[in-house]
Design brief:
Order of helices and strands: HHHH
Strand content: under 5%
Helix content: 55-70%
Low-confidence stretches: none
Number of strands: 0
Mean pLDDT: 85
Oligomer: single chain
């Protein structure tokens, strides 16, 4: 009987709203870093290129191109790709296989 006399309490939005464009900003940063690294523009470009060479060796351009593609994906789709799906696992496995064959041919490894 008294229930209808009580005022309804309004819930406050105490939760902080997440920055809505975080994936786009990350995508733009990845694209800029990959372009600067591919072109080796200035000391920052030389550092990015040297770090990519440190990670993967002479095939560093594939790493920088994949960062460029990932940045474009983040901007267009506005979400991170699911790297644990079978499609991505197969793509990464095949890419690793192709790059290892290229590396063997470059260094004449049999």
């Amino acid at each position: 009987m008294i229930r209808w006399l009580r005022k309804k309490k309004k819930k406050k939005d105490d939760e902080k709203k997440k920055f809505e464009y975080s994936n786009e900003v990350i995508g733009i940063i990845l694209i800029l870093a990959s372009i600067i690294g591919i072109g080796a523009y200035g000391p920052a470009g030389n550092f990015i290129r040297a770090f990519a060479i440190f990670l993967v060796g002479n095939i560093y351009i594939f790493l920088l191109m994949s960062l460029l593609l990932l940045g474009g994906y983040l901007i267009l789709k506005r979400k991170m790709p699911n790297f644990s799906s079978l499609r991505w696992i197969g793509f990464l496995y095949n890419s690793y296989f192709i790059l290892s064959i290229i590396t063997c041919k470059i260094y004449n490894i049999k």
